[in-house]
citrate synthase (unknown stereospecificity) (Ramlibacter agri), 1056 residues
Amino acid sequence: MPRKQKEIRTDIGWSDASSITLFGKDFTNEILGHVNLGDMGFMELTGRVPTPAESRMFNAMTVTLVEHGITPSALAARMTYLGAPESLQAAVAAGLNGLGTVFVGSMEGAAKMLREAMPEPDAQADFAALAAPVVESFRQQKRIIPGLGHPFHKPIDPRTPRLLGLAKENGFYGPYVQLMEAIAVEAGRASGKVLPMNATGAVGALCAEMGFDWKICRGLGVMARAVGLVGHILEESRRPMAQEIWHRVEDVATAHMRPPQENE
Amino acid sequence: MPRKQKEIRTDIGWSDASSITLFGKDFTNEILGHVNLGDMGFMELTGRVPTPAESRMFNAMTVTLVEHGITPSALAARMTYLGAPESLQAAVAAGLNGLGTVFVGSMEGAAKMLREAMPEPDAQADFAALAAPVVESFRQQKRIIPGLGHPFHKPIDPRTPRLLGLAKENGFYGPYVQLMEAIAVEAGRASGKVLPMNATGAVGALCAEMGFDWKICRGLGVMARAVGLVGHILEESRRPMAQEIWHRVEDVATAHMRPPQENE
Amino acid sequence: MPRKQKEIRTDIGWSDASSITLFGKDFTNEILGHVNLGDMGFMELTGRVPTPAESRMFNAMTVTLVEHGITPSALAARMTYLGAPESLQAAVAAGLNGLGTVFVGSMEGAAKMLREAMPEPDAQADFAALAAPVVESFRQQKRIIPGLGHPFHKPIDPRTPRLLGLAKENGFYGPYVQLMEAIAVEAGRASGKVLPMNATGAVGALCAEMGFDWKICRGLGVMARAVGLVGHILEESRRPMAQEIWHRVEDVATAHMRPPQENE
Amino acid sequence: MPRKQKEIRTDIGWSDASSITLFGKDFTNEILGHVNLGDMGFMELTGRVPTPAESRMFNAMTVTLVEHGITPSALAARMTYLGAPESLQAAVAAGLNGLGTVFVGSMEGAAKMLREAMPEPDAQADFAALAAPVVESFRQQKRIIPGLGHPFHKPIDPRTPRLLGLAKENGFYGPYVQLMEAIAVEAGRASGKVLPMNATGAVGALCAEMGFDWKICRGLGVMARAVGLVGHILEESRRPMAQEIWHRVEDVATAHMRPPQENE
């Protein structure tokens, strides 16, 4: 019995000899020169051009995630560039490969947590009442609540008030952001620690606010970090550090195996 | 003799408990909410905030490269997502890995060709005179001139006049763009074929115009395509095609090895 | 307060001007020429040279996973090579990126399931009694039991009896393999379907048998598939299919958006 | 005019419900349990089972390339694993992405150089006469001759005499290896430095000896390193170093930007 074929279909776009259509628009005349790179990201996620408020908010969310200086992701990219300087794209890709559960997971986790606690946005909800069982459930399972606290930015992540201010200015200070705030308050109360919303918590809440599927939130981090990693490769090409890091690590990591005279 | 240590240094940025400094600016107050994602890309390449004209031009250049519908890069990303849907970042990375000499090489090649023909921008140059030996050299070596012609967009790539129009509006219709135009004219004359500047040729020339090192031009394509690939993964998650493509290819590609009765 | 430094240490190996030490052995004289590539894989996982029986078993386990013809992983590698033929390594890496939960997850899942049901190997265990609650638990959670059944190889995966035969010959037909068999029997009884152990179930059980941490089982698939993907890239370089697949998919996937006359 | 379709075809293998055919053989009964992992690599490159001599030689060549302790490639993999421990495959892929011109290029370059100097193997050739213009040409172009000298293993790479010994034992001490030796002698004479064949030079010469296309030589390194990188990920999961490296590098690399009191 032959296999039944399924449909192969894209709705993103198509081209012919004289035109390119993307998301139902004439790319050349209606998109190119009218939108910025972040807006293109918004279009990729929604299929439509953002409103001015959406454009400002979405660009701020992705700009938040572009660059954090020396990160494991940047180091992986720089190590890769050291071996394959002819493949800049492979160095960026190596850096992106590490954007998994540890670093971008909290953004995704925050969006998921909020969506599960409040499947549809409800501006009239009692956020404190919704927050309590969420915090209780995480505490019972001894799981860290995503999007709260920061190992380094203390007492607060400086990006959070800025993002929330932009949310207010642009009409995105809605029920998911408020629920995230309520969860932060409740988590602080229950633990006795200061656990303010961090930047990934804010971006995750804003992803929920904008109606993005939580599974794709990680995509904002991926888009953004690709931009930042190109900058690290450029710096590595001008002021390299990867080789020196390698040699220092090798020296330190193998010292216990080397004969004593070598270390003298 | 102990190894002499070299410096390990970044100038991109640093953080402390209450602030994040990027490219010498206070990220939270001077960058976040003030720039868009493309502007962050410009900052990664230059270390400074773009002027309004630079912002419009750079965003247009990257927007040009975000999305081309079904491409080998998008298919690699979708195939990867089929096996590892928990690792969106790895699917995007797989798609980026293919942005090598074949697809983004012409952008890089155009920028390199222009820089080599005119190491410093010279608005008074005789562009036709500069173009002639470039075209002659490529023809003698039987190499394709990067950034001219298009396998599909004929007679002209619709994005090119739009990009050149934006260049004129924003003050980037300078000597490298004009040299690229002169090379296109000369290449057409020498070959007897219509060989207009394509979109990657225009972006490559604009990279030269903006003073970017040709080695980093590929980075614009990498930044941009990461944005587009997230959209492909989102569509794949909603309307999958990778599995069906796989099965169809497997059927076709192995048919010659299968016993006859299987194909009846 | 300065950060307290942690140790940076490797025990894998070190070199000096005249020697290379790996896993405590003189690589040049004690390893090179004495072991095969699979044995090196065994050494990477255990830190020691395998016994002859371990060598035969481990090589068979990895050989099982090298090559499955046209797979999504092979297609991702070929698509990547189309764009970046100068970066063979990046094409293989793109193919590896898809070895996630869907394709190699069942191997890992089987090893984990067995380890959790029987934390220490017990040759005297009542395997049927251990199997019953495992199957019950998966059925209650409506989760698929990893390592059983096959979408295509029916009624049995031909590799399984071969792997089990090799396990018997080499002394690895132990409690974990027997527990996996008991789980297959119990799953078949409970579901009323034929659910024999598949090849990834067999390899997963053998990973448990050999004492490997279930978290590293996926590594056998990664090692093996890297070998196979090089073969696909070689074939792609000689008899390309990626470009033709791309064009066919693009035609089919965008047909619904094109004006009617284009399809006539 | 509709596009003319090209063939989509693989000769690697196919499966049906009860059998798997690879390279024309019944995988289950003729390959599995009969060959080792390195032999599968040989089959991927040649389509046939190696002879015992070929098996020993090819396994030795790949074993040479598996593991070099702390390398940039291993560090990229470890940095990636730190961020995405759920995606072991992506960590290995990140490590492979760096196997470009700098580290495996010399193997490929040696094979290419030998093939170009002696397109067909000729056991009666005057190797010194063939070597002279090769060395002269590299010197004139101020290019480094691939496969000679070593930054660290001095005066000789200990792996080279072992590989050449294995080549003699197994019948692969042929014209390409001898030409490589002649090139080393000539390069030493012309430069006045000691420039013995290194391990990648030996493997590259043996690739030529075995008849492999030089473009695929890099594949031996990719196969082999995938095996080694799994070992580094296992060690990283047990004795992590990536996080500590990250913090140390960040401290050092950003110290010049921090206010003085922070460093006190």
Q: What stands out?
A: Residues 217-238 of chain B form the longest helix (22 residues). Chain B has a mean pLDDT of 95. Chain B touches chain D at residues 8-11, 13-14, 16, 21, 84, 86-87, 89-90, 93, 97, 249-250, 252-254, 256-258, 262 (CB under 8 Å). The CA atoms of residues 172 and 182 of chain B lie 16 Å apart.
